[in-house]
Amino acid sequence: MGKEKETASLEDLIEKAGGCAVVDGGFATQLERHGAVINDPLWSALCLIKDPDLIKRVHLEYLEAGADILVTSSYQATLPGFLSRGLSIEEGESLLEKSVKLAVEARDSFWDSVQRTPGPGHCYNRALVAASIGSYGAYLADGSEYSGCYGPDVNLDKLKDFHRRRLQVLVEAGPDLLAFETIPNKIEAQACVELLEEENIQVPSWICFSSVDGENAPSGERFKECLDIINESNKVHAVGINCAPPQFIEALISKFKELTKKAIVVYPNSGEVWDGRAKRWLPSKCFGDDKFELFATRWRDAGAKLVGGCCRTTPSTIQAISKVLKRKVVSKEDC
Ligand SMILES: [Zn+2]
């Protein structure tokens, strides 16, 4: 499978979606709404072991809501994390593989059903599956994905070693995309870029940063420094922001537009603040679905090519985004 074909598929999807494709929403949030107990260092990855059917159900809910891209349940699924729970390497690897398979199965069965019964007013696209690769901080589960402070012992090689085997296993499982998420600093962005090159990865990827001040990476490093590294890689097809509050997004899109020619992807959280140490959401300025609907068009008009939601957003958030972003497409083609 050549790189050109894969590249075209992300670009085609963006075009088919009317210029801005819809990424799905909060995964763990939705698992919890269905009663899953995931207060655990493995977080949503715990469901890969305990309740894979529920993972598929959540993927289907996001597809029905209009998501063009499904992000897999592997964000906090790591081999060291599984090993610390007493699983073998083989078991851990097969769970990573399963995270991709579950999303692919959901996508395929949903797409079959849409083609069998095309309904008026719906404009579904065959979704792409993005394998989620959470940052090293997400594995540490100590909130450092929002501080960028990995400490003096963490260097480039250590980060590459942490990411390498999971990346290989996820790629083997056959996703359409790779989604590096909540990267908090320059060194981890560099690790991702170098690893894609060293492993000669042919699956297109995006790299998303979190941001806690609305201007810089969580480490305090400037986004220019981070994006300069990413811009040199032709393996990275999109860059952006995930799991930052929505009120930061418009200004960050404008900033990124000046710093890169790559497609821009944004999927903020609902605006509630995660207390990484206490492992709970603090009440804060929270965006409802109506606000997301309003802001999604502004984010698109500012230059985002991929828009979705992260923590605390739900299928109804994604439905609101999808409805407003695809309005033009639906009226033009009446699909
Ligand atoms: Zn999030």
TrEMBL record:
UniProt cross-references to SUPFAM superfamilies, sorted A to Z: Homocysteine S-methyltransferase
Entry keywords, A to Z: Metal-binding, Methyltransferase, Transferase, Zinc
Cofactor requirements of the protein: Zn(2+)
Amino-acid positions noted as binding Zn(2+) in the UniProt annotation, renumbered to this chain: 243, 310-311
Domain of life assignment: Eukaryota
Residues covered by the Hcy-binding domain: 9-325
Native source species: Carpinus fangiana
Protein name according to UniProt: Hcy-binding domain-containing protein
GO MF terms held by the record: S-adenosylmethionine-homocysteine S-methyltransferase activity; zinc ion binding
Statement: the UniProt record of this protein carries the keyword Cell cycle: no
GO terms, biological process: methionine biosynthetic process; methylation; S-methylmethionine cycle
UniProt remark on cofactor binding: Binds 1 zinc ion per subunit.
Keyword Metal-binding (UniProt): yes
